[in-house]
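Thread: N-(5'-phosphopyridoxyl)-D-alanine complex, take 2
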Amino acid sequence: MSIVYLNGRYLPIEEATISVLDRGFIYGDGVYELIPVYRRQPYRMAQHLARLHHSLDGIRLANPHSDPEWATIVTELVARQPFDDQGVYFQVTRGVAKRDHTFPKDVPATVFMMSNPLATPSRETVESGVACVTAVDERWLHCDIKSTSLLGNVLMRQFAADRDAVETVMFRDGFLTEASASNILVVKGGVVLAPPKDNRILPGITYGAIYDLARQGGIPFEMRPVRESEVWTADELWVTSSTKEVLAITTLDGRPVGNAAHAGRPGPVFRKMHALFQASKPGA
Ligand code: PDD
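Output below.
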């Protein structure tokens, strides 16, 4: 029985209940975060808390906790789970009020947190890479907010699942954005290309880690708009997220990714980055 956190209390998940009038339920009026925890140590917690703050600012909801308060709850929750590698999920909504689109006054936010076992990619998946498909990005223009209003992302993820793919890589106006629950990076001529962190993508914390590791490891990294044509002619494609870490995309819409030397297989820059990422994890 998993112990979760709800509005100041730690309790078994079966006993954690909220009102049907919660604005998270009625409107998807809330934001969330997911922090990976390796060997009971959160990975890049400061960056995740900063992004949570950015998301809350983006929906004009006051942050209900200071960073030290959030850190205490994370520590408590992690300590109450029987497994070492965890994914701590946070959700903050605009609280419970009579249904009305405008913001309610003087209503406390609902704060829910749970921690599940972190299922990191298997050796096999790392070695073989993953299949992805493509689609036009039909989501809204505030994708930098980690909102619980995820219908666009849910439909894109199912689009991939229906085609036995792990992700849907999306394009807006001829440029790469991201995937349904992960960021996409491109390698061309030894340079890692990443779409800029603007309103069209979620600023992934894993993307940020890869950026730092590339700089430290002497791998050229350019943040700039990436054309759809550059994705189709990439030497390598990577997918990054807190749960996928970094994985090579080896087929896109059924076509092998990459040049003749490693078409359809993870490339050399991926191998280097994967090793750097593994070495950067707490307790590695
Ligand atoms: N998804 N882009 C989108 C749309 C995402 O939902 C995510 C994360 C990312 C990668 O962000 P990060 O590297 O910080 O995990 C990019 C999480 C894992 C989720 O929704 O469960």
